[in-house]
Amino acid sequence: MVQKKSKKVLIICSDFYKEISDNLLKGSETYLKEQKVPYEKKIVLGSLEIPIIFNKFLNDYSGFIVLGCIIKGETDHYQIVKNICYQNIYSLAYKNCIPLGSAILTVNNYEQAKERSLTDKKNLGQRAALVCCDLMNKV
After folding, report:
1. 3-state DSSP call for residue 35?
2. What φ, ψ does residue 128 adopt, rounded to 5°?
3. Which of 69, 48, 62 is nearest to 11 (CA)?
C-alpha cells in the first residue's frame, strides 16, 4: 500500500468542456467544504492528462477526485480517450488502494453532460466527492 503524506484530497479536473467542468468542480468543492475536508486542485486541458497528474501525485494525498467530460462524436476518438483515461486511472487506484471518486462523464451529447453536472440536478461532481470521502474513511 502507498504511504500518504497528506490528509488532503486532490481534485484533478479536465477543463475541455469548461461549463461542465466548472459545474462538476463546484459540486465537489461544495461537498468537501461542508465536510471540512482540505483539498487542492489541478486543472488539466483534457481527460487524457488526468492519469498523468494522478500518477505524479499518487503518494501525496489521502484521496483523489477526477472530473471531466468525454462526449461521443462521429469517430472512434471517444472510445480511445475514454478507455485510456479510465483504464489508467483505475489501474493505479486499484493497485495502490487509493480512495478515488470519479465524475468523468462519458455521454452521447452536451445536453446529457449538462444534466449530469448542474448543481441543482444530478451533479456527479458532488457524488464523486462523497465517494472519495467515504472510501478515505474505510481504507
Report:
1. coil
2. -65, -40
3. 62
134 as an active site residue: the answer is no
DSSP 73: -
Alpha helices in 1-139 (DSSP H): 18-34, 50-56, 77-96, 110-117, 124-136
Per-domain residue ranges of the chain: 9-136
Stretch 78-95: mean pLDDT? 95
How far is residue 21 from each of residues 28, 119, 125, 135, measured CA to CA in Å?
11, 11, 9, 23
Q: Are 62 and 98 in contact (CB under 8 A)?
A: no
Which residue among 77, 87, 95, 97 is the active-site one?
77
In this prediction, residue 1 has a pLDDT band, given cuts at 50, 70 and 90, of: very low
Please, what CATH class does the domain formed by 9-136 belong to?
Answer: alpha beta
Computed from CA positions of residues 123, 120, 133, 51, in that sequence, does the dihedral angle turn out positive or negative?
Answer: positive
